Structures are given as structure tokens and as C-alpha cells.
From TrEMBL:
<feature type="domain" description="Carboxymuconolactone decarboxylase-like">
    <location>
        <begin position="45"/>
        <end position="126"/>
    </location>
</feature>
<dbReference type="Pfam" id="PF02627">
    <property type="entry name" value="CMD"/>
</dbReference>
<dbReference type="InterPro" id="IPR029032">
    <property type="entry name" value="AhpD-like"/>
</dbReference>
<dbReference type="InterPro" id="IPR003779">
    <property type="entry name" value="CMD-like"/>
</dbReference>
<dbReference type="GO" id="GO:0051920">
    <property type="term" value="F:peroxiredoxin activity"/>
</dbReference>
<protein>
    <submittedName>
        <fullName>Carboxymuconolactone decarboxylase family protein</fullName>
    </submittedName>
</protein>
């Protein structure tokens, strides 16, 4: 499928977004990320979104490894090829092994997860399935994390579900490796 809105050129997204996307591509070893060049077509919204998203990843309260597990689980549950591709690379950089990256698809009941990782995957699954958490899951989350971090986990799951929907509807294609 072809993109419904193609990634913008410098004149479409502005110099700052264009330069940011090119630097991000160099860092990730890909072409400039289509997520930035596509969403950047709405310049005002893009700047606000980038600030918001950056507060959770990479600037969140959770360790990056755990953040990437949540994002990868959302990508799996939503069928977001773009986010799965993008965050497999980021997950490796955060310390996830290839076996762990593959195991994300098996979910929280797969053997090998640390207790907090299993909990975060369970929270992600439950939020995806019901848009809520049972009292038992909430109690487990609160026993493990402080209030600000619990809020962040809920926002992280919701944000990446929203992003997966947007990227899917726009048919944004995964970024190719840099040549």
C-alpha cells in the first residue's frame, strides 16, 4: 500500500523538522524517519507532539528497556509494522536481545521475563483489550511503581496506540536502512 500522506520535503515540514529527521535517521541508521516527516506536515501539532512524546521516550521515568518493551508490545497488539520495525532497533540499543524482542509477541506469560517486565506487558495487554485495568492489576502496578510512573505507563500505552492508528491509517512505511 502506498502512503496516503507522503513524508514531506524541507519546504513541507520546515528546516527544523527536516534537520531533526535527518539527524534522527543518522542516529538510528535509517533514512530520515517517515514518522517525523509525515507528521511534520502539520508543523504546529508536530512540535507539541514531539515534546509530549519525548517526555515518555526517551525522557521518561521508566528505564529505556522497559519503555521499549511496552512500545513493542503495543506495536505487536496493534499490528503496527512501522513501530515494530523502528522500536526493534531502539530496543536493541536499550539492551534487549533478539530472543527477547521475538518473545514480546508471546506476551506476559512467556517464560523469561523479570517480574516488572511481566507486569508491564500484562498492563499493556489489559489496557489494549479493555481500555481499563482490573483492580488487581492496578494494585500490582501501584505496588511496583509510584504514582507519577503509573500515570506515565498509562499514557505511554495510550500514546503508542494512538500513534499506531495514525501511522496505519496514513500507510506510513517502515524506514529503510541507511545506505
Amino acid at each position: 500500500m502506498s502512503a496516503r500522506i507522503t513524508p514531506g520535503a524541507r519546504r513541507d515540514v520546515g528546516v527544523a523538522t527536516w534537520a531533526f529527521a535527518h539527524v534522527a535517521g543518522r542516529v538510528s541508521g535509517t533514512e530520515p524517519p517517515a514518522v517525523f516527516l509525515t507528521l511534520g506536515r502539520n508543523r504546529r501539532l508536530f512540535r507539541g507532539w514531539l515534546h509530549f512524546a519525548g517526555r515518555m521516550m526517551p525522557g521518561g521515568r521508566l528505564p529505556r528497556r522497559q519503555t521499549e518493551l511496552v512500545i513493542l508490545r503495543v506495536a505487536h497488539l496493534t499490528g503496527s509494522e512501522y513501530e515494530a520495525t523502528q522500536h526493534r532497533g531502539l530496543g536493541r540499543r536499550a539492551g534487549l536481545t533478539d530472543a527477547e524482542l521475538d518473545r514480546v509477541a508471546d506476551g506476559p506469560d512467556a517464560p523469561g521475563w523479570a517480574p516488572r517486565e511481566r507486569l508491564l506487558l500484562r498492563v499493556t495487554d489489559e489496557l489494549h483489550a479493555t481500555d481499563d485495568l482490573s483492580d488487581a492489576t492496578w494494585a500490582d502496578l501501584r505496588a511496583e511503581l509510584d504514582e507519577p510512573t503509573c500515570i506515565e505507563v498509562l499514557m505511554l500505552v495510550g500514546h503508542y496506540r494512538m500513534l499506531a492508528t495514525t501511522l496505519g491509517v496514513l500507510r506510513v512505511q517502515p524506514d529503510r536502512p541507511r545506505r
